[in-house]
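Reopening closed ticket. The problem is back. First fold of the pair:
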Amino acid sequence: MEPAPSAVLAPLRRPAIIAPGVVRVAPKLAELWYYRELFYYWLWRDVKVRYAQSILGLGWALIQPLVPMLLFTVIFGRVARISSDGIPYGLFCYIALVPWTYFANAVGDASGSLVKEGNILNKIYFPRLILPLTGALGRLVDLAVSVVLLFVLMAWYETPPTPWLAVTPLLMLIAVITAAGFGMWLSALAVQYRDVRYAVPFALQVFMYAAPVVYPTSLIPAKYRHLYAINPLVGVIEGMRACLFPSLPLPVDLIAIGAVSALLILCVGALHFIRKEAVFADVA
């Protein structure tokens, strides 16, 4: 006996539910290695384009921390007379501006990376994580140039570094991780909410005063310092000052808290980015 037509058509009448698949983090991260040559190319392209047809070229990497250092030295060092823990204020401020300038520029580049390359997102497939990571890592060239000037200033002030100088790459790594985490999170937001690109520069200006750039951590009450160190740049900046001046103890506790906070920021930023990746091509 043949089945009734209604019985045959019943499965066809069931509504089809289209839902996003399960977000898998490991394959997304593995794709970065598979597309590593594209990542290297994009990274080199960003560095080269940034200084193409520029009169000063890499000189901009020196001007960006140097000019604020001069202004802060006059305003906060000479006029306001803010404590610098016995360090010449110009050098005290420049040490902080080295990681801070890198962080601010890296977050700014990474947060706008998806919007900047929006015309590519809906044409070809590649790991979207490449874009914010390129923005964060591309500023390492500027960081290296500003570090060279830092050692020149230390020689000018006749300040020999301490044996803790070997810790500075770890401190820079914390700054890079923090910038990458914020960059991934903000870039995913910027695709859907275009006013993020206007909010990021303003937020970075405010955030600078939440880090010990123009003042030392010793001005923060002791009971709030560990809470204050949740900002990863606190441990980075104070750690760099201690690595370069023997009179300052290395703030191991602040660095440890900042490292844990930086890893959490990186994980949250990556997870948010991967969850939102499916809609980038639709809204870019």
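Second fold of the pair, where the issue appears:
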Amino acid sequence: MTSSFNKRAVVFAYHNVGVRCLKVLLAGGVDVALVVTHQDSASENIWFESVVSVCELEGIPCITPDDARSPQLLAQVQAAQPDLIFSFYYRHMLPQAILDVAPAYNMHGSLLPRFRGRAPVNWAVLHGATEIGASLHEMTVKPDAGAIVAQQAVPILPDDTAFEVFGKVTVAAELALYNVLPTLLAGTAPRLPNDLDQGSYFGGRKPEDGRIDWSKPAHEVYNLHRAVAPPYPGAFTDIGARRYVIERARPWKGNTNGMPPGLAVVDNAIVGVCGDGRALLIHGLLADGERIAPAILQAQLAQSH
């Protein structure tokens, strides 16, 4: 990697992508004057790395404002006098006032213009995509709409969960930034069109979106499971007052013999029968956080009828 030309940057960062891309900037000799990140939420399963820890280790000033639109934050960004602004999986949209301070670039976890918006990895897995990646693009007030500076693709294998794909996207983001950083700092980086008419936009996802509709074909139910499998909240089904969450599953090659859609126990194995007569073989089924054995589930299913 070539000289950073003494560029100063303000970095908005969170999650694993935030950690890895921040490290790329530091390795490239960029003077990171300020990092803006989030306080971890007590209600969220924090399975990812900490941007705050990197800043503490590297001695970088780090703040966690609640409001990206606050005048105080704008003043702090302006005081840092950055040549560049980066956003790496920061969860708030940045207002025009901050974007006006310096050229700003965002790392998005898809191959733009596809899967713009929130939770791109989860949506890609849900829709059965076979490829995803990371895109560094110019920031505009409209999300994920600016010109593309760099992209790196990675495959989505048929049995990959969103968690596994996110690991690949993290590496893709690191590679995309690493490869383009010298030209970005020199002011000679490419600007590729981001044709929004050719892409797709998706909103955020909530835990309730993981509810299984067993009338759907097996491949759709399987993709839902893959998209929200732990450490995400998981695909679930309610029977009576009890909620069952699929921890691990695979498509089943056995015969459902006309069984109705829903959970069942066949030959001491848990299966989820789907609307097309196919099924998932469920290797891990959770209730109240505990794994349920086939015999226990069979007894619970008998009680519910």
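Update: turned out to be a display glitch only; the data is intact. The CA atoms of residues 78 and 101 lie 6 Å apart. The chain has eight helices and 15 strands. Please close again.
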